[in-house]
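so i finally got all the pieces together for this one. its two components total, 317 residues if u count the protein bits. some of the lines might not be protein, just check the labels. i wanna see the whole assembly predicted at once instead of chain by chain like last time, that was a mess tbh
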Amino acid sequence: MDKRTLVSRSDRKAFYGVADKESGQVTYHRMRGFTELSESKNPKEYTRQYVDEKFEQTDVVGYSPSLSFSFDKYTSDAVLEDISNIIDSEVVDAEAHRQIIQVDFSTEVDGGYAAKKRVFSIVADAVGNGLDALSYSGTLRPVGGTISGVATINTPENGTPETVETITFTES
Amino acid sequence: MNKFQAVLDFINTCPLVGYNMYFNFVDETNTDGNTSLLTDGYGALVKKYVDGEKLKKFQCVIRQNKPLSRYSNSAENVEQMQYVQEFLEWINEQGEERNYPDFGEKCVIQKLSTPEGVEYPMLAGVYEGTALYSFPFEITYTERM
């Protein structure tokens, strides 16, 4: 039986799709510099009590998930430059949609790691809330459903879950 | 990468180091302008990022022995203090020019300076014929797992 070990927060890493300006090819870069990237599921509940029963019953009929984020701006970081440009330029509509892949490096599957891809809309909240570093905050709200798949480390060569820079996503 | 050696090598490039450079040792009686690099505390974790990367501080103290005059209105003590002040300013100039020690591949240095609010050295001790001046500085860096 495998030993029971604690899964740390950093075992689940998020990767952000940045499109090349010339070719349009999307590369999924590790989201670094984030002090917060927490998900709220916001379930939608249907609660009722039937006339022949003394109790209420509840079903979850949907979800309205969101990812709260906050990051310190670093230079030479494609992800942070893209998000900060969306926020600073007040980009709207589909131009503010980005693909994000959450990879669980504690779960190995089919030669890679369990991953889920989803398109999110970047909803800005605040810029510059602090004196130590230029920070950005906001919420990522889903535009579509979740696609499950397998993530493999693309760079660096022979990279590990600690050193991973970019990944390749294959839909299951 | 041995960060202690990296910082020691870096400080040794300062033209104001003096005759002797010590690491974690202070020779209080020597008046020949010794410089001591002392580690200060355990190092501070500034913040931890969601993906596991950490922002840390490497904290040190510089101590310098300088000749001490016991005569009133002595310009010599002021002059010696000014030498140490120039050393402090050298540290901050290196930070502004992004001239940093090498902490290895896993680390990227973000800032080198004296702590906020530290603009002058302090008199750390007075011995026969010797004054000991001191000031802290810190190196802020990101470190990958």
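The beta strands of chain B are 21-23, 35-39, 44-48, 54-67, 107-113, 122-127, 130-143.
The first helix of chain B runs from residue 3 to 11.
anyway lmk what u think
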